[in-house]
Amino acid sequence: MRLIRCCSVLVAACGLLGAQAHATGMCQTPFMHNGGVVQLSGTGGLQLGANLAFSDVQKDGDGHCSARVKGKATYGLAGLPPGQSAVDYWMSVKNGKITFERSENGRRVPVSGKFDLRMLGLFAYGEPITRQGQTFPALKFQINLDKKAVATAPIVIHTGTRTVGAKQTLQTAVGEKSCWPIKYSRLTEATQASFSGIVLPIPEMKSTVTDWFCPDVNMVMKQESNQSGIASVVEVTRLQ
To answer: How many Cα neighbours within 13 Å face the side chain of 219?
Structure first.
């Protein structure tokens, strides 16, 4: 479960914080620099949280960058036990894909799980957001979890067509911003995962989602979702 919690939050951190479709999205986010800090807080049914610091940042062109990510991650989902873990990974981004390495006996060892940054918004839009009523096509992608940590099938996610609403003023961690609400449906296919050696089924999950994309910081600063009447919010609470 440790890797699920750590990497679920890293996916949230890397996905919630960006929404532009061009390759510069992840590598150009405000936190991607030496000394960068980002904090996420979640409430409701899905309680993702993270306090992450970035160092050893390297950039090789707009769409390729790497960094060491350290901090603390928390994860809670209605019906499953909550937990928290220390985070210490080397992260690499190339062409919209993210990979991780961890320290093992003084060596950097690849984590076999791979994560599509479109999970919560990054690289999910085919062009810049410019107007109310603009739409972006449905998507299908998956997360492959590290098999050393948990026995599970890949997590497969479908999103419906995304529709841009009217710009609104949003209070964010970096002040009031004019932001676009982007609404869509999200379906996570049923899968299974190992908890303390016991394999349990994870049921299909359907939710409606709103990403709040703020052009001034080129990031999704808040995500609201509702699953079977249970509301959740994940938002950026600190950014530097």
So the answer is: 29
> What are the structure tokens assigned to 52, written together?
């992450």
Q: How far apart are CA 156 and CA 154, in angstroms?
A: 6
pLDDT tier at 78 (50, 70, 90 boundaries)? low
**CATH number (domain holding residue 65):** 2.40.360
Predicted pLDDT of residue 81: 59
End-to-end Cα, the chain, rounded Å: 30
Per-residue burial over 173-206, b if 16 or more Cβ lie within 10 Å, else e, is: bbeebebbbbebebebbebebeeeeeeeebeebe
pLDDT in tens, 63-76: 788 899 888 877 66
The pLDDT, as a whole number, for residue 33 is: 92
- Give the separation between CA 122 and CA 7, rounded to whole angstroms: 16
Residues 6+ apart with CB under 8 A from 60: none
Q: How many domains does the chain have?
A: 1
pLDDT(15) > 60: no
Tell me the backbone φ, ψ of residue 30, rounded to 5 degrees.
-60, -25
**pLDDT 10s digits, 130-165:** 899 999 888 887 666 554 445 456 678 888 999 999
Tell me how far apart the alpha carbons of residues 218 and 156 are, in angstroms, rounded to a whole number: 27
Query: Residue 12's domain spans which residues?
Result: 2-239
Which residues does residue 213 pair with via DSSP β-bridges, in sequence order? Answer: 180, 220
